[in-house]
């Protein structure tokens, strides 16, 4: 079993037991840019980072599906590298989002927007934990198809993910409304 931890987003720990995927564009792209100093540019940067998160989740899902296709031997080395790169991408995004949160609060006197980002980060942490949990359960289903209890667990986790995505969407709507109110 390998444990990978992202201390900057959420101290989320990924535990995995058992295709060459790369996140290099995500890892190198946004992290080299400096956080902008004017309000509208900061807001646009935040939206761009949220788009990167969505893309990172998509790559994470695709990578996991490819990993499951390598059963029963499982190409764990490539998957471990993917998880490492995903973790780096999420940590880089999170660090930049937290800097934007600080900037909105301190430089622009917008504690309302800073609070939205705080809530968003909490929900993003939960989403990442649920995604990792779902991936582990999907592997259990594949490894133990005779055990029907795993199917129920998948459905429960998927329901939690749906609720989480709804909460994230609501936070983003509130952020958008509040940022445009005085922007």
UniProtKB/TrEMBL annotation:
Residues 113-140 form a coiled coil. Keywords: Coiled coil. This is Required for excision 1-B domain containing. The keyword Coiled coil applies. It comes from Gouania willdenowi. Pfam families: DNA_repr_REX1B (PF14966). PANTHER family: REQUIRED FOR EXCISION 1-B DOMAIN-CONTAINING PROTEIN (PTHR28309:SF1).
């Amino acid at each position: 079993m390998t444990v990978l931890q992202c201390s900057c987003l959420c101290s989320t720990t990924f535990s995995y037991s058992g295709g060459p995927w790369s996140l290099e564009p995500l890892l190198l792209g946004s992290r080299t840019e400096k956080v902008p100093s004017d309000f509208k540019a900061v807001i646009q940067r935040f939206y761009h980072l949220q788009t990167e998160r969505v893309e990172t989740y998509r790559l994470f899902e695709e990578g996991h599906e490819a990993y499951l296709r390598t059963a029963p031997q499982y190409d764990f080395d490539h998957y471990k590298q993917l998880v490492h790169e995903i973790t780096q991408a999420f940590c880089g995004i999170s660090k930049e989002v937290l800097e934007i949160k600080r900037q909105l609060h301190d430089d622009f006197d917008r504690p309302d927007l800073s609070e939205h980002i705080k809530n968003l980060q909490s929900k993003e942490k939960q989403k990442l934990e649920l995604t990792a949990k779902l991936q582990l359960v999907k592997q259990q289903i594949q490894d133990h198809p005779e055990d029907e209890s795993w199917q129920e667990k998948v459905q429960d986790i998927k329901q939690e993910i749906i609720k989480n995505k709804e909460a994230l969407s609501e936070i983003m709507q509130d952020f958008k409304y509040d940022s445009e109110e005085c922007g």
